[in-house]
Design brief:
alpha/beta; 14% strand; 295 residues; eight-stranded parallel barrel; TIM Barrel
Length: 295
């Protein structure tokens, strides 16, 4: 079955602006408009970068509903639905569908991780019961369990599973998976520093953290790859390579929220257990940002 990707190019895993113990929806709207002006193709609402584990049930619905309305079909709206509680993920997927989202993003389970058969059941349970396309999220560095090749093959046959955000960095697995699944599974890079090699292999874009602060650059890099201009994409990447690296000098989204504040985008506080950057790392981040004229 040939599947059409939910989006191509750059999708932003957008931060959630928290203020005074709640979600600052007005600021969230400003961030969405900034992404649209930067040429981004999709917004991922309530993902890991949005500190989703700290969102209450009511906050989640309000954030998704507001986000979808503010996007207003200008970009695709993809909603993070978590991953270590299968029934809760289904509940969130149904909320996302009812509020008009285009797709959901569902990760492998963390802490109560399972085996590969359990992964198939985990994703299929939600995909079978939620009338909304699903993007898998493979990030074993944070969940400690990755999607194996045979698991990818079985999941790719599910008509409601559109693709995967691949953030494993396993370049022995990724091309084999893409060759095996072909047009049955769309692939997005889940790491800003691996977008170009993954798109050279056939990925259709990136779900990016860096585009929170440089949406135009990430969008252009993806466009050049889609057009086959890999030299142009590479030259652009070299300009931002140090910045991309420093955005992960501490656990995401601590650095990117810090960077946004430095740029005058008051995205409010982090929610515990996340905390402010170490001063030494903050200085390194500032140097990288200064190098590309952001501050």
């Amino acid at each position: 079955m040939m599947k059409t990707p939910i989006f191509t190019g750059a999708g932003t895993a957008i931060v959630t602006p928290y203020r005074g113990g709640g979600v600052d929806l007005d600021k969230f709207g400003e961030l969405i408009d900034f992404q649209y002006a930067g040429g981004v193709s999709a917004i991922i609402i309530g993902g890991t970068t949005g500190e989703a584990p700290t969102l209450g049930e009511k906050e989640f619905a309000e954030l998704v509903g507001y986000g979808v309305r503010r996007i207003n079909s200008r970009m695709k709206a993809v909603v993070g639905i978590g991953g270590n509680n299968t029934h809760e993920a289904l509940y969130k997927a149904r909320i996302a569908r009812s509020l008009g989202a285009d797709a959901v993003l569902m990760s492998t389970p963390y802490y109560n991780r399972t085996n590969q058969s359990g992964l198939i059941k985990h994703f299929s349970y939600v995909a079978d019961r939620a009338d909304i396309p699903m993007i898998l999220y493979n990030i074993p560095g944070r969940t400690t369990i990755g999607i194996a090749l045979d698991t990818y093959r079985e999941l790719s046959a599910h008509p409601n599973i559109n693709g995967v955000k691949e953030a494993s960095g396993e370049f022995t697995l990724i091309p084999r998976m893409m060759a095996m699944c072909g047009d049955e599974l769309c692939v997005w890079s889940g790491n800003d520093d691996q977008t170009i090699p993954m798109m050279a292999l056939g990925a259709v874009g990136v779900i990016s953290v860096a585009s929170n602060i440089v949406p135009s650059a990430v969008s252009e890099m993806c466009t050049r790859c889609l057009e086959g201009d890999y030299k142009g994409a590479r030259d652009l990447y070299y300009t931002y390579a140090e910045l991309f690296a420093k955005l992960f000098i501490e656990v995401n989204p601590i650095p990117v929220k810090s960077a946004m504040k430095l740029m005058g985008m008051d995205v409010g506080e982090l929610r515990l257990p996340l905390w402010e950057m170490d001063e030494k790392n903050l200085r390194l981040l500032k140097t990288a940002m200064s190098g590309v004229g952001l501050i």
